[in-house]
Design a protein that fits this description.
Oligomer: single chain
Strand order of the largest sheet: 6-5-4-7-8-10-9
CATH class of the largest domain: Alpha Beta
Structural class: alpha/beta
Largest sheet: 7 strands, mixed
Shape: globular
CATH architecture of the largest domain: 3-Layer(aba) Sandwich
Low-confidence stretches: 1-7
Distance between the termini: 68 Å
């Protein structure tokens, strides 16, 4: 009998060193995650940022602490990969990471921390502070549209003309509802009311909701001029609609170029999920993330667009799953994403 000789190559000292260095780097990163998460205040910051993006000053207000102290905590969390900064105008905001470049121990540890803190409800005091921040943002947006309602089209067309996003949205809606009867549609932030006419032609009952009275007055004028008798206009927010919601839900919710004006964009997904009928669709047209800061002053934008992953994550968190996606590139450097999200809950 002959012995079978092993043909495996021996591990060289150099390979052992490389492996040791790699493991050491992973352990160092892992230690950074646990060190950053080993602080009560920093855990509370992560809880508040579950689906929100806040600036340093806003977080300082929420937690009643100085800006320098808050900046230190945010930098620790960012270095550990638990948060990532993004610039909005001249301010730095923070959010949880949108995506990870690997699925190693650091990500697993971070996800474990997120899962743990998300299982704990925010205190009444923190909820009140978050609500106050959103009210301040909403007031800023409302004040802009109150001052500029008469120039709404002129300002919006600095970014995109209505037809550039309205036509793809209308085509997507027509395609998705071609073979199924649709009764009720809701448009969030209808602006001057142009898209309400498209919805009124395809749905038995249409609702438009806006928190700016001046803009709602313009939408009402459009409805009267075009005799859109199946359209109801509501002054307020989506959560008010939700609290008064009865019946079988909306077959369609539409938000055209609205999210970048909204104090809490993620909330649109959660409110829509609760307002949609089973199988209903949320269709959004929105700017992709950009660095053209002038739009904040000229167009009243609170946010410089959004990464597609942000919208997908918010939808998933609300129980909606992604459908069609269309990207539209504009000559002025902006890009629009048209996104469909479906309520698959029965």
């Amino acid at each position: 009998m002959h012995e079978t000789l092993s043909k495996e190559r021996p591990v060289s000292a150099n390979q052992e060193t490389i492996s040791s260095d790699h493991d050491g780097s992973l352990l160092e990163a892992l230690a950074g995650v646990f060190k950053a998460g080993g602080d009560r205040l920093r855990l509370d910051i992560l809880r508040v940022l579950r689906r929100d993006t806040f600036g340093v000053m806003e977080l300082s207000q929420i937690f009643a602490m100085g800006q320098s102290g808050m900046s230190h905590h945010l930098k620790v969390l960012a270095r550990a990969g638990l948060l990532e900064p993004q610039r909005e105008g001249n301010a730095i905001f923070y959010r949880r990471p949108l995506a990870w470049h690997n699925s190693g121990p650091q990500q697993q540890a971070a996800q474990g921390i997120f899962t743990a803190v998300d299982s704990l409800p925010l205190s009444r005091e923190m909820l009140e502070q978050v609500a106050l921040i959103r009210e301040q943002r909403a007031a800023q947006s409302q004040a802009f549209f109150a001052r500029n309602a008469a120039r709404f089209r002129e300002q919006q067309e600095l970014i995109a003309e209505h037809h550039q996003y309205a036509e793809p949205v209308a085509a997507l809606i027509a395609q998705q509802f071609a073979s199924s009867p649709a009764q009720r549609a809701l448009e969030i932030g209808p602006g001057e009311g142009e898209f309400l006419a498209i919805l009124a032609a395809g749905f038995a009952q249409v609702t438009g909701v806006d928190n700016a009275r001046e803009m709602l007055d313009q939408a009402a004028a459009t409805c009267a001029r075009q005799q859109l008798n199946n359209v109801e206009l509501v002054l307020g927010e989506c959560d008010q609609l939700e609290s008064n919601h009865t019946g079988h839900g909306y077959d369609l919710v539409v938000a055209n170029m609205v999210l970048h004006h909204v104090a809490g964009p993620a909330d649109i997904f959660h409110h829509s999920a609760r307002l949609l009928a089973p199988g209903g669709r949320l269709v959004i047209s929105e700017l992709c993330r950009h660095e053209q800061r002038w739009v904040r002053d000229n167009c009243g934008d609170l946010w410089q667009g959004f990464e597609p992953e942000e919208l997908t994550g918010w939808a998933r968190d609300a129980g909606l799953h992604a459908g069609e996606t269309i990207f539209i590139g504009l000559r002025n450097g902006f890009q629009i994403q048209v996104r469909e999200f479906i309520n698959s809950q029965s």
